[in-house]
Write a structure and sequence with these properties.
Largest sheet: 4 strands, mixed
Shape: globular
Number of helices: 2
Radius of gyration: 14 Å
Number of strands: 4
Structural class: alpha+beta
Distance between the termini: 42 Å
Helix content: 25-40%
Strand order of the largest sheet: 1-2-4-3
Order of helices and strands: EHEHEE
Amino acid sequence: MNSTSKIENPKSPDAKIDLRGTPCPLNFVRTKLRLEQMAPGAVLEVWLDAGEPIEQVPDSLKMEGYQILETQFVADEPDSGFFAMKVQRPENQEAG
């Protein structure tokens, strides 16, 4: 096995959107609109606050047919941080 192979690694995002400080459900709406502008199979990295945003947005996206590839907590200060979530637009998603 080649240690430099990246085939199994999570896909690098094609775009990023910072929605820290954006209330629900606006953060979901903005995420969905951005994904709809992207090519099928593209990956969007979304930055979300802890609490309601990270609890609600992934579930809402899954219900819309999007795939959550990865979610990780990023500590930006000792007592705070945010979540970086990678979501993929389905290859066969119909527009609209």
